[in-house]
Amino acid sequence: MGKRIKNICCIGAGYVGGPTMAVIAHKCPSLNVNVIDISEERIKSWNNKNTDEIPIYEPGLSELIKKCRGKNLFFSNDIKKHIAEADMIFISVNTPTKTKGIGAGKASDLKWVESSARQIAMYANGFTIVVEKSTLPVKTAEVIKSILQAAQQSNKNKKNSATFSVLSNPEFLAEGTAINDLINPDRVLIGGEDEDSIEALSQIYNNWVPKEKILKTNIWSSELAKLTSNAFLAQRISSINSISALCEATGADIREVSRAIGTDSRIGSKFLESGPGFGGSCFKKDILNLVYLSEYFGLPEVASFWNEVVKINTWHQHRIAELITKKLFGTLSSKKIAILGFSFKSNTNDTRESAAIQICKDLMDEGAFLCIHDPKVSKVQIAKDLNCEPINNNVESTAIKDQDYSGIWQSAIDIKMALKNADAAVILTEWEEYSQINWFKFANTMRSPSWVFDSRSIINPKNVVDAGLNFWRVGDGVT
Ligand code: UDX
Ligand code: ADP
Questions:
Q1: Would you call 126 exposed, middle or buried from its count of C-beta atoms within 10 A (0-12, 13-18, 19+)?
Q2: How far is the CA of 279 from the centre of ligand 1 (A)?
Q3: Which is more confident, 201 or 398?
Q4: Is the CB of 233 under 6 A from ligand 1?
Q5: Residue 261: pLDDT band by 50, 70, 90 thresholds?
Q6: Is 309 in the pocket of ligand 1 (CB under 6 A)?
Q7: Which of 132, 270, 341, 472 has the least CB density, counted as fewest CB within 10 Å?
Q8: Ligand 2 atom at minimum distance from 56 CA
Q9: Is residue 282 annotated as a catalytic residue, yes or no?
Q10: Atom 9, ligand 2: which residue's CA is nearest?
Q11: What is the model's pLDDT at position 137?
Q12: Ligand nearest the Cα atom of residue 232
């Protein structure tokens, strides 16, 4: 029989913590769920009266927040109070790749996890279950445990001294479909040593997830399963993207190849869509973690196998930028390119590791003037990612011919503005609205000859070609 849990606290109100806690609060009305964060701005934004202005765009999330916030779901900066009250604490903080020191460029930076563990050690009361939820390198639970154990030792003689049990419960949600993934998971994975704590967490999920989908294992297997799962998914995308280049060279069509191989039940049809290269906060980071781990444990062949998955992804992004340049007669200076989509996939405002960042940088290096549109990503975020401020919106794109606007960008308020006087349109995110563009209507507003580059295969080629525009799409050697 697991410990009865009444108060849950989640450290980190981000893309994982926010949606996960919203679903737990929704499915478990008897639980009190507090999401805490060090960022005052983030918490303020989660508490925004207008639930359409919460910090994360995720279909279905705003409705859940409306329903649960203020009832059994709370967002707060009072870290001390909510850790002290909690029976169970989820750690859901950011773990980016280290930029300096040992393992730089590969290992995860655990400073936020470590500081969360220290906060827990300082403020927790009584027996507390600590659940690692962030994507973490294998053996992170060990780090958390040793910090908590040290606290336990020094607290021994104090009243209310805390004791801990650490579990690993990796998150498998994908952005854009997070709420559905959380409500209907393929599986929930819980790793740990203490049966009662595993049971306590399992009972929470069992409020809506059938028992047979709740897999229990040891902590290391749970951590490694998460990394491996992401590495396998990313590997499928690198595989299909590498074949798309071969399709273009040979006259095959990647969509036909995907369809044919996807019908093999051993392979399966999902995650075989060739695109501009995978992005998101997890894939690259998790593979680099695997590479680091393999090197650390003296397995250089394993490390180089997984490293290739990341290398080919970067190569593919450069390849797309290069071919755009080649099609536009080898030079982009004084040319306006409409970029349609900046998030790493549709239905999210997240741009972390988005293929659009590298592709836009490459095009700007070639001297292009970019007019960037995305339905959900802010101008401020794009400027941060490109490390470059945009020019004023009211500069007419015709002016780029007279002045040197090479290598700069502008934010488009709508598709019409992005396409006006453009030499090319490049679709980088598969937003529904881009698949609906009426190319007949816009063809005359673009410069001639102009191109449409579809890196997501969302456009019917006939609509573009019939409108008198040149067309390229990924992995299409047929047209
Ligand atoms: C991923 C995992 O799917 C999820 O289980 C894990 O918890 C976190 O990492 P996420 O990064 O949110 O989720 O999105 P995902 O749908 O996996 O897409 C990742 C990238 O791959 C995106 O850039 C997407 O556009 C790209 N992709 C995906 C393709 O290019 N082709 C495909 O067929 C599928
Ligand atoms: P993820 O995609 O993993 O959810 P995010 O970057 O979206 O990552 O969110 C992580 C959140 O964790 C951020 O809002 C950050 O401010 C918060 N955070 C990091 N360290 C701490 C900490 N020690 N205490 C509380 N919140 C933290």
A1: exposed
A2: 7
A3: 201
A4: yes
A5: very high
A6: no
A7: 270
A8: 7
A9: yes
A10: 14
A11: 73
A12: 1
**Is 155 a residue whose pLDDT tops 90?**
no
Residue 83 Cα to ligand 2 midpoint, Å, equals 15
Residues 189, 224, single domain; the answer is no
Regarding whether 224 and 213 lie in a shared domain, the answer is no
Same domain, 168 and 149: yes
Burial of residue 396 (number of CB atoms within 10 Å: 0-12, 13-18, 19+) = exposed
The answer to whether the pTM exceeds 0.90 is: yes
3-state helix, strand, coil in the chain (%, to 5): 45, 15, 40
Let me know whether 151 and 257 are in one domain.
Answer: no
Residue 373: which CATH number? 3.40.50.720
Longest dimension (CA), the chain: 81
Q: How many domains does the chain have?
A: 2
Ligand 1 proximity of 236 Cβ (cutoff 6 Å): no
Residue type, 54: I
Domain that holds residue 26: 7-217
Q: Are residues 149 and 251 in the same domain?
A: no
If you measure from the C-alpha of residue 439 to the centroid of ligand 1, how many angstroms do you get, rounded to a whole number? 29
* E strand or H helix at 257: helix 254-262
pLDDT at 412 over 90: yes
| Ligand 2 cavity residues, CB under 6 Å | 11-17, 36-39, 42, 92-94, 112, 115-116, 119, 134, 281
Q: Is any atom of ligand 1 closer than 6 Å to the C-beta of 273? A: yes
Are residues 428 and 341 in contact, defined by beta-carbon separation less than 8 angstroms?
yes
Per-residue pLDDT, 108:
82
Is the predicted pLDDT of residue 2 greater than 80, yes or no?
no
At residue 60, what is the residue type? G
User: Which residue, judged by its Cα, is nearest atom 5 of ligand 2?
Assistant: 14
Is residue 167 included in any domain, yes or no? yes
Residues 398 and 348 in one domain: yes
